[in-house]
């Protein structure tokens, strides 16, 4: 959930709504909503694409996720 919240925060900080981000990604707003709610996982390549579309450094988001992940978290 840390990734989801970080993506929402980044999008809002950029002044974008879900529709705006969907337009930039050339996808439906419902996909953005599913990603942000955690209903759909994001792979590394998609994180880079999201970072470019929103305008953030993906390594900063990874640091947030790393800090929020328990050391014994299972896959």
TrEMBL record:
Molecular-function GO terms, alphabetical: DNA binding
Limits of the HTH cro/C1-type domain: 7-61
Protein's recorded name: HTH cro/C1-type domain-containing protein
Alphabetized CDD domains for the sequence: HTH_XRE
Annotated Pfam families: HTH_31
């Amino acid at each position: 959930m840390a990734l989801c919240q970080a993506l929402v925060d980044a999008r809002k900080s950029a002044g974008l709504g879900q529709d705006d981000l969907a337009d930039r990604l050339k996808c439906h707003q419902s996909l953005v909503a599913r990603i942000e709610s955690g209903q759909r996982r994001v792979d590394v390549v998609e994180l880079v694409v999201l970072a470019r579309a929103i305008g953030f450094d993906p390594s900063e988001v990874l640091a947030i996720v790393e800090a929020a992940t328990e050391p014994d978290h299972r896959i």
